[in-house]
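Please decode residue identities from the backbone states below.
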């Protein structure tokens, strides 16, 4: 079993000249998973007719079984989708929401999910209601109370979109309690678990939601284009993919609706079992957690100390295991986006210019974001990272700080 850090990095198909501290954005692919997928692509391209007509059912079944075991799901309730955004679209667009109905989201809901809800709003006269997440967020109870206030005030809410872990800022939501309060008001519950699989242990059958969707390519080492959608049995004949599948028979078997959606490359789905094997072969959740959790805290503390800034204020129970937010020093070239106080839809923005410049100049891939009218650095830790990666990031930012002083 390879040691985590630099030795483990050799097992990933990552550019040797680039420092990666933004794993949660796109994930990273182990060589064994990459090679397995390439073998599948070769097989598909050698005999495409045989592949598309005779291969999908068996290889889908093999892989969905492995993922179902990994996520605590019945195979009959689980299907593959390319990403969490597709899973959200499948549910929201299939529910036949009517004028006067409402969807409950938050100011931290991922932008593509919010945009999906607003598009449905325009098409069907549905209201989008926001929980404006308090800042600073001091406890789980504070967030639960904010949800309860909105649910008690808006009887027309039909669907509650809950985050397991938000992307920016990275926060672990009290999902069990939020599901309970949503059930109290008899609402449908859709969980955005984009950062869940591989990041936190899951048992989808015991979660208590109606729908769950999550990516396998972020923290479970599958290729991009591999995610899942869990649908409670009572909704199997009501939730359909955005693209009607070739194998759609309308006979109640959920997987047939999602199996075969034209002549595309679905090998990411068929590599999921191999990715889970890799996850387990390197020691599984407990070994990954024991390495990454202390490292992400150490890396965040290092940045705070060297940059003279501060941590994003968050109670310990809401911190994620592999991601942190640290304030970026003020840089005149890279100002935060200032959002009016009453604007809840666009409180979070990517700072793409500094993202690109730090990569181009220093060879570091990191996320820089604007939250609550302040600029922040979002760092992630995976099994191939070491503290030296974050030393490099700190030094790069300090270079920008010195250059900024010379411009004044």
């Amino acid at each position: 079993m390879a040691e985590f850090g630099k030795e483990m990095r050799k097992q990933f198909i990552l550019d040797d000249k680039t420092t990666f501290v933004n794993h949660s954005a796109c994930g990273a692919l182990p060589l064994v998973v990459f090679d397995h997928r390439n073998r599948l692509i070769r097989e598909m391209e050698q005999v495409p007719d045989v592949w598309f007509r005779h291969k999908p059912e068996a290889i889908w079944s093999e892989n969905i079984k492995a993922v179902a075991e990994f996520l605590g799901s019945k195979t009959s309730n689980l299907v593959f989708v390319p990403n969490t955004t597709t899973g959200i679209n499948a549910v929201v667009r299939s529910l036949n929401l009517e004028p006067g109905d409402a969807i409950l989201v938050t100011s931290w809901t991922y932008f593509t999910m919010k945009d999906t809800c607003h598009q449905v709003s325009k098409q069907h006269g549905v209201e989008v209601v926001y929980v404006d997440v308090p800042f600073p967020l001091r406890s789980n109870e504070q967030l639960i109370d904010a949800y309860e206030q909105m649910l008690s005030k808006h009887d027309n809410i039909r669907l509650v979109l809950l985050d397991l872990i938000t992307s920016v800022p990275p926060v672990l939501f009290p999902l069990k309690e939020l599901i309970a309060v949503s059930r109290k008001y008899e609402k449908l519950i859709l969980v955005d678990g984009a950062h869940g699989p591989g990041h936190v242990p899951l048992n989808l059958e015991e979660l208590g939601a109606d729908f769950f969707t999550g990516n396998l390519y972020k923290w479970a080492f599958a290729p991009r284009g591999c995610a899942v959608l869990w649908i409670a049995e009572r909704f199997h004949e009501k939730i359909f993919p955005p693209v009607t599948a070739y194998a759609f028979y309308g006979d109640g078997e959920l997987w047939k609706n999602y199996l075969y959606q034209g002549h595309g490359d679905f090998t990411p789905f068929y590599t999921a079992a191999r990715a889970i094997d890799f996850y387990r072969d390197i020691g599984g959740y407990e070994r990954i957690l024991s390495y990454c959790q202390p490292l992400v805290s150490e890396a965040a503390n290092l940045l705070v100390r060297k940059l003279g800034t501060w941590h994003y204020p968050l109670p310990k129970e809401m911190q994620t295991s592999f991601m942190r937010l640290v304030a970026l020093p003020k840089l005149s070239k890279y100002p935060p986006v200032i959002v009016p106080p009453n604007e809840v839809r666009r409180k979070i923005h990517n700072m793409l210019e500094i993202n690109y410049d730090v990569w181009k100049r220093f060879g570091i891939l990191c996320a820089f974001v604007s939250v609550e009218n302040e600029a922040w650095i979002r760092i992630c830790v995976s099994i191939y990272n070491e503290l030296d990666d974050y030393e490099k990031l700190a030094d790069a930012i300090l270079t920008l700080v010195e250059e900024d002083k010379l411009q004044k």
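Observation: Residues 6-28+283-407 form a domain with the Aspartate Aminotransferase, domain 1 fold (CATH 3.90.1150.10).
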